[in-house]
Write a structure and sequence with these properties.
The structure holds two protein chains of two kinds. Helices cover 39% and strands 20% of the residues of chain A. By secondary structure, chain A is α/β, with parallel strands linked by helices. Chain A folds into two domains: 12-176, Thiamin diphosphate (ThDP)-binding fold, Pyr/PP domains (Rossmann fold, 3-Layer(aba) Sandwich); 191-316, Rossmann fold (3-Layer(aba) Sandwich), CATH 3.40.50.920. The chains are: A alpha/beta, B alpha/beta.
Amino acid sequence: MPAILPKPWQNAGMREAYGKTLVKLGAENPNVVVLDADLSGSTQTKMFGKAYPERFFNMGIAEQNMTGVAAGFAVSGKIPFMSTFAVFATGRNYDQVRQSIAYPENNVKIVATHSGVSVGPDGATHQALEDVALMRGLPYMTVIAPADAVETEKAILAVAKMHGPVYVRLTRSPSPVIFGPDYDFKIGKGVFLREGKDVSIVSTGTMTVPAVQAAEILASQGIDAAVLHMPTIKPIDVDALLKASETRKIVTVEEHSVINGLGSAVAENLAYYNPTRQMRIGTEDRFGESGSAEELYDKYGLTAPKIAERIKVFMKH
Amino acid sequence: MPHAPELILSLERIAAKIRIDVIKMIAKAGTGHPGGSLSATDVMTALYFHHMRHDPKNPKWEERDRFVLSKGHVCPALYSAMAESGYFPVSELMTLRQLGTRLQGHPAMQYLPGLEITTGSLGQGLSAGLGMALAARVGKKEWRVYCMMGDGENDEGQIWEAAMAAGHFKTDNLTAILDRNSLQIDGCTENVMCLDPIADKWRAFGWNVIEIDGHSMEAIMDALDLATTVKGKPTIIIAKTVKGKGVSFMENNAEWHGKAPNKEQTEIALKELEAQAAKLGVEVSKED
Ligand SMILES: Cc1ncc(C[n+]2csc(CCOP(=O)(O)OP(=O)(O)O)c2C)c(N)n1
Ligand SMILES: [Mg+2]
């Protein structure tokens, strides 16, 4: 079982990890180009811009154009990484992603930051809760939501090596680093962070840390919960899901709408392979709102205690 | 017709108050966009306190003029103009961006009466404004539509789709205001994505263009009046402004696009703004 780091976990930013990894990639591969849409300070692509100004393109506040230009780079043998906030990287430019990137299976890496409700005070316009739904629905698109800064680095290095369109979903706030440097990230592979026989929690992205913590709370109350971290939402790791479903109860946790995200992907697959009772935890069928990240996590039930509480109730029924 | 000096002065006083509100709100929230709020304040003041026909006590009054804040991130200035003109209590301003507030981080019409459309994703307001202007035409109504855009926002293709359509439909009841502060997030607009010659671009799309100093109340009022007299084409007022106007360390500094001042910076900012207000004869309350 791949051990996660012992506590105390240190916080680190996924965005900083992304920026640094881009610089590394830039040094290794002259075909890597980076595009941003007037948010290079927020997405940290500015690090690449500083190191390789001739391969960095700030496209202004014009996400649709940026997306099309990235496709043009891809068909010309470059490996474009394009970044902006998750709402604008998947929604504003959805048709460009669909027609110019996904359908022709072009090698564009869409790396978005500021996903989920943890964007906080900016409110619903900036809180992407449907981005996974949009990207997952596109044929050929790989969708990855790393849990921490280490996994972000490994995922970025991995997607640069694979051919094809990818959506990587990052968040704004620094988060606990749970993976050590020799963690073996593989696209399409889930990782069990904890074994358990009563219930399996399947989590992705920022919700993996609270999922682990919820499992610890449950353990202290006599409920033995496994935690399966699923960094790749598409293609999903069916073998890992089958193993998780042995507990006969599954709970999915994601910082995303319960519609068409990880929860749906799990349900779709288990419904066929091994129908299992499942509870989806995420944001309900609603938009986000202004508030601090902590307040919103609490209000929407995305904290470890709230997750544990809901699982306890689920176990009784 | 020239405007009475007393009217101009009274508007300048209100603008001075709005700038103070803006800093207080953003400081209290600990988050928000001061730079573009301060550059947009004077135009919004002229609109809400003189030029637009509207009724703060009856925000759904059908005949009202419509204001669309396409660059939604500067809603602190809009919220202040709305509160100071009577849409809701001024005290509510201090709830900006907090859980449960009607004053969402970006303007959300479903939360707050008086907001004509929900914005925050840049580039979408002008299209909505055009729809409202065309609705007036269809319904044989007299209302006018005002839409404020950022200059960085002019990078967005949708702005130019709306511009082309407004020119095509000759919507002379639509007035756009471009807050030409020459900064966006990643720096100077001309370095990030060159906009100039911006006036020529708008002209080429069929618009009447008026270029003014966006901090001269008199020039703003004249331009707004002039725009209502132009027939057969929409008007854009390109208001040359200073991002962060009124707070020395925020002026022309992209760093203050979307950041709240800390306690010390807030004190300095308020001191400067209060001095400007006092010079205009505003009594600034000390308690809040
Ligand atoms: C579609 C979209 N892309 C990106 C952003 C993020 N963003 C918010 S403000 C801003 C810069 C706006 O610059 P400008 O229009 O010049 O506004 P101002 O200078 O008046 O603040 C950006 C890129 C957004 N809100 N919407
Ligand atoms: Mg600007």
